[in-house]
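Need a sequence for this fold. Nothing fancy.
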C-alpha cells in the first residue's frame, strides 16, 4: 500500500475490530488513542504495529498524526461531541478520512461545513462508512440504476435479525441515546429539509419478515439524489424498535419541542453517558454469533408504483462496519479515490467497485 493508514480510537470496541479487519487485509495501520497502556498490547497482538498517543480533546495531537495523502480512520464517538478534531485534521492535512458514525447531525455537518473546505485542500471525507449508512447507499444506488429515469422516490429500511442479549456496544448506546433530542433531516420535494427523527413510519419486508421502520436522517439523503436527477424523495428508516415503532411518530412532536428548550441537549448527553456506564463494552456473544443485517431499498415512480427493489444481507453490525472501514481505507490507500470533498461511497469508489468491496465485507444481494 502506498499511503499510511492511521486508526484513531483503536482501543474501543469498534476500533479494535477495525484494527483486526485492517490487518486481515494486509495493512499495518498506526494505532492511535489516548492510553498507551491499552494501545501496546493490542499492537503486539496484531503483529507489532506502530502506535501513537492522541486525544481528541487536544486537537493538535490529532493533527500531528497525519499528513497529505494519509488515510485517517476514526471510531471515536459520540461524534457530535468528539468527532470534530479528526475531521478538522483531515481537512487541514488534505488526507482521506473515514468514520464509523451513525449520527445524522454529524453526517450533515461533514457534508455542509467540512465538505467545501475539503475540496479546497484536496481531502476526501467519507463519513458514516459502516452499517450506518453504506448498505442503504449501496442498495439505493443499485435500485435507482435499475429504475432508470422513472425513479421518483426511494425508501431505505434497515433491520437486524437474530439478536439475542445486548445488541449494541457501550459506545453505540451512548451515541444513540444522545440523539434523542438532536435535529434530523430528510430529502423531500427535491431538497434537503429539517425533520425531527421518528416523524414517519415505513412498513417493509426484510428477510421474509414484516418490519416497521421509523424515519431518521441518513447519509443517503445527501448521497443518493446526485445519482438520479429526477429523484424527489428519499426516506431512511430503522426497524429497531419492534412493537414500539408505531408509537414513535406520535412522540416525535414532543421530542422536537423538547429539543428547543435550553439545556435539553446537555441533559440528554448527561443521561446517555450515565446509562452507557451500565452497559457492557461489547454486544453479547449470542448476538455476535447469530445476528444478521438486512437492508432494503424500494424505488417508486410518480404514481407510487414500485419499479425496483434491492435487498442486501450482511453479517452482524460490528463485523460489517469493521470490514467496510477496512476495505474503504485499504482501497483509498492504494489510490482508489480520485475526488475531493465530502463524498458518498458511490461517488468515492464507483458503483461496481463498491458492490465488489461490500461483497468482500460480507454484504451481498439476497
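Here you go.
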Amino acid at each position: 500500500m502506498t499511503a499510511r493508514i492511521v486508526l484513531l480510537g483503536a482501543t474501543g470496541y469498534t476500533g479494535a475490530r477495525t484494527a483486526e479487519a485492517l490487518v486481515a487485509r494486509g495493512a499495518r495501520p498506526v494505532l492511535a488513542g489516548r492510553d498507551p497502556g491499552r494501545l501496546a498490547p493490542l499492537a503486539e497482538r496484531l503483529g507489532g504495529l506502530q502506535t501513537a498517543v492522541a486525544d481528541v480533546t487536544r486537537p493538535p495531537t490529532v493533527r500531528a498524526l497525519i499528513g497529505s495523502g494519509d488515510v485517517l480512520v476514526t471510531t471515536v464517538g459520540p461524534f457530535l461531541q468528539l468527532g470534530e478534531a479528526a475531521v478538522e485534521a483531515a481537512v487541514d492535512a488534505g488526507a482521506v478520512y473515514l468514520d464509523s458514525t451513525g449520527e445524522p447531525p454529524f453526517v450533515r455537518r461533514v457534508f455542509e461545513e467540512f465538505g467545501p473546505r475539503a475540496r479546497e485542500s484536496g481531502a476526501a471525507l467519507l463519513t458514516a462508512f459502516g452499517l450506518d449508512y453504506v448498505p442503504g447507499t449501496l442498495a439505493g444506488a443499485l435500485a435507482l440504476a435499475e429504475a432508470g429515469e422513472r425513479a421518483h422516490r426511494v425508501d431505505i429500511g434497515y433491520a437486524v435479525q437474530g439478536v439475542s442479549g445486548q445488541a449494541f456496544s457501550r459506545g453505540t448506546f451512548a451515541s444513540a441515546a444522545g440523539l434523542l433530542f438532536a435535529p434530523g433531516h430528510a430529502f423531500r420535494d427535491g431538497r434537503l429539509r429539517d425533520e425531527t427523527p421518528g416523524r414517519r413510519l415505513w412498513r417493509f419486508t426484510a428477510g421474509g419478515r414484516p418490519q416497521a421502520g421509523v424515519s431518521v436522517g441518513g447519509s443517503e439523503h445527501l448521497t443518493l439524489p446526485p445519482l438520479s436527477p429526477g429523484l424527489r424523495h428519499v426516506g431512511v428508516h430503522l426497524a429497531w424498535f419492534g412493537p414500539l415503532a408505531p408509537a414513535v411518530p406520535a412522540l416525535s412532536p414532543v421530542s422536537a419541542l423538547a429539543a428547543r428548550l435550553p439545556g435539553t441537549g446537555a441533559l440528554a448527553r448527561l443521561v446517555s453517558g450515565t446509562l452507557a456506564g451500565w452497559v457492557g463494552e461489547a454486544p453479547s456473544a449470542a448476538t455476535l454469533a447469530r445476528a444478521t443485517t438486512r437492508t432494503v431499498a424500494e424505488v417508486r415512480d410518480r404514481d407510487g408504483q414500485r419499479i425496483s427493489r434491492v435487498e442486501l444481507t450482511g453479517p452482524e453490525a460490528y463485523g460489517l462496519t469493521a470490514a467496510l472501514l477496512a476495505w474503504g481505507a485499504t482501497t483509498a490507500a492504494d489510490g482508489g479515490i480520485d475526488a475531493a470533498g465530502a463524498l458518498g461511497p458511490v461517488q468515492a469508489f464507483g458503483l461496481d467497485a463498491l458492490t465488489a468491496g461490500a461483497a468482500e465485507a460480507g454484504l451481498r444481494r439476497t
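For context: The radius of gyration is 19 Å.
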